[in-house]
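Deliverable D5.2: sample structural annotation.
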Amino acid sequence: MVGSDTAARVPAGRPAPDTVKILIAGGFGVGKTTMVGSVSEIVPLRTEEPLTMAGLGVDDLDGIEEKRATTVAMDFGRITVSDDLVLYLFGTPGQQRFWFMWNDLALGALGAVVLVDVRRPESSFAAIDFFERRGIPFVIAVNGFHGEHPYPVEDVREALALPEGVPVLLCDARERESCRDVLIALIDRLIAAAAPAR
């Protein structure tokens, strides 16, 4: 695209990189904004607003009482995986009252990361169901709050009733390398899913 920063970074004669749209989804307060911000090579676009009294009784803050802001539209970041592959990351809003936006955000998405907080695993059921119903490949990333992972991967898989084919990874949404490894696992899954189609 003429005038884009991606075009400006591509040397003359080299084709522009392929771009892949990835969603970062999950329940309210699971770390989606943190993950996008940790791994993005650009300053991420955020649409966070302070939590107010209007959300009392609407937003469930059990287990995340320290939360002070919330995403009201989306987060956006970018990461260059290689010279020929760039990921565009779109973080979804977590509260149920903003779920209507997920359909629009999912347009053109090739895959997704579903972040899970094991203190509140039920908050991720809606995201899992959303991607399963639409046939969008996804991986599960268990966000270790305070750097802790109290449950093994197989216990998480069983609690979420996931089929064997869905990768479950332990991560820390604050750590760039950890988030990068989750995205690489998703790319590997997308490549594997595309191989039979060839």
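Annotation notes: Strands lie at 18-26, 45-50, 69-82, 85-91, 109-116, 138-143, 168-171. The chain has a mean pLDDT of 82.
The annotation will be released with the project's public dataset once the embargo ends.
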